[in-house]
Amino acid sequence: MLNYYISEFKNWLNVTLPMIINEKSFPLIVGGLFLLGVVTRWGVMRNYGKLIRKAENIDSTKNYTIRQIKTKYDSIKQINGVVENPMLFVKRNLNKCRILHIPVNKMNNIIYWCTLLIMGVSAFLSFRLYKASPAKIDWISYLVLGCFLGVALEMAGRMMSTGEKKAELSYVLVDVLANGVHKRSVREKENSVTYAPAADNREQVVLNENSAEGIKTAAQKQLEEEAREEEVLNQVIGEFLQ
């Protein structure tokens, strides 16, 4: 019975796949998969960027994900008095984040599945063309095009890395949840004030150096005048003794 179903499935594939994957539909399938991978990765990056901005205004935001994380954090803190590992808590809740009812982690991995499908479609069509007419070299062009688009999509996925955005969002959420928005804004102001006097300190050092050089020059002039006066006095005394 099992062999019968396997043979029927193979017959269905042999009939259906050539109707779906052929020379005419190949550009549409491959191009659609390429765009799907790029758009989903861009959507994940955009979502993380939006959550970073919402997290910085956590007290007034209406974002469902940020509000849920804050509510859970406050509940745990109220019951236990402290959250033992805020970073682990934030990362676990971010992994449950969704975009259009799709988990963000799964949407982030769509680009890798698109890469595999592009190469698989090109390999299937190339093999079918090779079996139909081994003398022709059309199958090589489809295979090369599929491999090129697959590698290009993989490189695009690496350029649009979501790891840095997710890490930044985690640190911002932990900072805001543990210290509050007010302390975060005050700390940013203190940092800006701390950095600002650095230029003033450099200017003060330059002024001190200039003033020191001025004092040094005045002392040298005074010593030179005293030396000249002493020389003139010695000359007068020498002439008087003669």
Q: What secondary-structure arrangement, pairings included, does this model have?
A:
Elements: H1 2-20, H2 26-56, H3 64-80, H4 86-94, E1 98-99, E2 102-103, H5 104-108, H6 110-132, H7 138-159, H8 163-241
Antiparallel strand pairs: 1-2
Helix pairs in contact: 2-6, 2-7, 2-8, 4-8, 6-7
- What is the N-to-C succession of helices and strands? HHHHEEHHHH
Mean pLDDT: 78
Over the alpha carbons, how many angstroms does the gyration radius reach?
Answer: 37 Å
- Poorly predicted ranges (pLDDT <50, ≥5 residues)? 194-200
Helix content: over 70%
Number of strands: 2
What characterizes the major β-sheet? 2 strands, antiparallel
General form: flat
Distance N to C terminus: 143 Å
**Beta-strand proportion:** under 5%
Number of helices: 8
Class inferred from helices and paired strands: mainly alpha
Major sheet: arrangement of strands: 1-2
Describe the structure.
With 242 residues, the protein is mainly alpha-helical. The chain is 85% helix and 2% strand. It contains 8 helices and 2 strands, in the order ααααββαααα. It has helices spanning 2-20, 26-56, 64-80, 86-94, 104-108, 110-132, 138-159, 163-241; strands spanning 98-99, 102-103. A two-stranded antiparallel sheet has the order 1-2. Helix 2 (26-56) runs antiparallel to helix 6 (110-132), helix 2 packs across helix 8 (163-241) and helix 4 (86-94) crosses helix 8 (163-241). The longest helix has 79 residues, at 163-241.
